[in-house]
Design goal:
Helix content: 40-55%
Order of helices and strands: HHHEEHHHEEEEHHHEHHHEEEH
Strand content: 15-25%
Radius of gyration: 26 Å
Largest sheet: 5 strands, antiparallel
Shape: elongated
Number of helices: 13
Oligomer: single chain
Length: 347
Amino acid sequence: MSGIGALNARSREILQQIVDTYVETGEPIGSRTISRRLGEVLSPATIRNVMADLEEAGLLYAPHTSAGRLPTERGLRIVVDGLLEIGGDLSEEERGKIDSLLAANGRGYDEVLDEATRALAGLSSCAGLVISPKSEPSLRHIEFVPLAAGRALVVLVNELGLVENRVIELPVDLPASALVQATNFLNTRFHGASLDQALKSIKAEIEHRRIELDELTARVVEDGLALLAGGPDDGSLIVRGQSRLLEDVSAVEDLERIRLLFDQLEQKQGMLKLLQATGDADGVQIFIGAENQLFEHTGCSMILSPYRDTKKRVVGAIGVIGPTRMNYARIIPMVDYTARLIGRVIG
């Protein structure tokens, strides 16, 4: 059985009712309850027969003897894939909240991503996360601004129009003219180059004594570029709203599984594999329970969508982690809209 289209109409309806009830309550559902939800157009006996067929197909299971049924991860997958086929949309209210929270207003790239993660966590009642690999944007403008004796502010504007500010330490006797000279030198020589490219070139020139700056100014240039080009080699992970995820956990062993999940997520290799899996596909990706090694035995699912720059390159991914019974119909379009909005903000 490959999808919800392989089920007949009666089986689809009953599976959908069981999944909807599971999302609402987390509790097993019996044939009599489904019959009432369907307006008693089907008898409990007829529904039991269909549930038995769905259980035999691996789409339902009984957590206890004589209890109702719950969807398996495979059953959830079939219903979620059906949601992706028909699509969905946000309410005007939800769309407006995300728009207002992500309004750039001169904020930096990291601040926009942090706010987007908080917005998703708040609206979805799950943990929000964003995966941002290390990028090498080209330089549009760089400037050294004196702050006080021995300190200067380095202002970088990259090709995306995003601004980064860093403070660097300088020799206390450095003249202000050296900062002007360093600014002019970088903007003339390395406009359009990446930070790493500029830094390697500067180091090579200093090594071969061919740089057009005196030794003190060259040091300012090198220190400033090194600071801005530094940082994590494999990108960053922002997670907000973990406490919302833990609200759905009651047992100590469940808490330990959630803790291990976040430990694994913070490992760069696992994080980047997720990003690669998301970037290789088009649109929202959904990982239900053990479908992904990261979520094996955690009882969690992830909805993740890549965001792209103006050249349609995947530059990161944003999404949520929540219990497998999260409200997929509501959260899928929420994640999709937020990812598209980030692409427009950073573009």
